[in-house]
């Protein structure tokens, strides 16, 4: 049978990137192969994001373009199926088909293991929609990726360990689109990580909407937290780096702090969103922590290692935010000192409590606050990057860079680092002497002798000790 072609486009967070890969793995079993072009695709999936208005509107402009491609395919006598997956699918359901009749399948983030059946239904009945939260766990039904797929995806991989959120921050759609917090059992995660490691993956980022709220069933029948899980995964041969994202400041337990203290594979870079530095706004956001709680959380990490750097998310212009509240955010940023951060203008999301709040901050004020915050964060980020110059840092090499002869990898802090070297270093952690900085990228030279060369990605590398960077 001729393979059918699948084009998938993901928007939004890391979870969507991971989900898109799992959809590809699921559809591979149905004879689908990926294509980079929309025009020759038999199936186009838009894996959508609902977090802010801009993100969710993108899907409709893309659907407008897809209508043209679908008509063109029909003129050639081909059927092009169009599926909308992800959080817009969950939030808007049938409304998507009403607004964009070009869509054949709508599938929510908890149901994409049913894609083959939904496609069959769409071919038969013209349309198929599934946005229920099924009782079964989709992960139990998703086929694992094939070895060649794992290799093609590179040496760093995401693994979902937890999904959904019970925190109900008043601005956020996630509890509605992704549902209640569910943790996957440890044994399943270990199987996934071992398979990835066996086929060349060296770095795992454990992902979840509230990843440090992880409370999965351990092999001993007890509930394991993220710290315990990290300790276990660090023992898997081949895994040299572990990361996790995104964390909530309230769910930091001692096991996580100890994991940072004891396990070299746990990277000293923590994404810990705070959203605002004003207690009044944090309370209106229902964050369930104060700015001081957040400062204390950061201190707990720093108490076990001064090397730990932080990134965060911020929202400016939440309803009722005054200049004084905003000043408190700037003060917090100044005090913590970030290696980087994402900042967003508040966007009211239908169905969330904040969407009904009055006292909207004007668009001009939001723009102005965003610019001021970003300027402060940029200056912290560039100071952090500059501090690497002249130091020796460990880099996990990922792939050949655009410039011939250069290989690019990442430091512990996810900074891209380039060296001139052979491709045999891909998959290894090696010390690099940093000479200069070009925009966000570090340039340097391999420091010290190369370890015995092995074909890339076939042998676990030594995780040499992370060299302290002055942050
Ligand atoms: N408006 C603006 N930013 C938002 N985020 C979540 N919801 C909204 C919203 N309604 C931001 C938060 C969150 C990040 C993923 O997106 O900062 O941490
Ligand atoms: Fe959204 Fe808050 Fe849950 Fe994060 S913790 S996913 S911001 S509701």
From TrEMBL:
Cofactor dependence: [4Fe-4S] cluster
Ligand binding ([4Fe-4S] cluster 1): 13, 49, 87
GO cellular component: cytosol
Acetylation listed as a keyword: no
Biased composition annotated in UniProt, kind: Polar residues: 455-471
Family assignment from sequence similarity: Belongs to the methylthiotransferase family. MiaB subfamily.
Protein name: tRNA-2-methylthio-N(6)-dimethylallyladenosine synthase
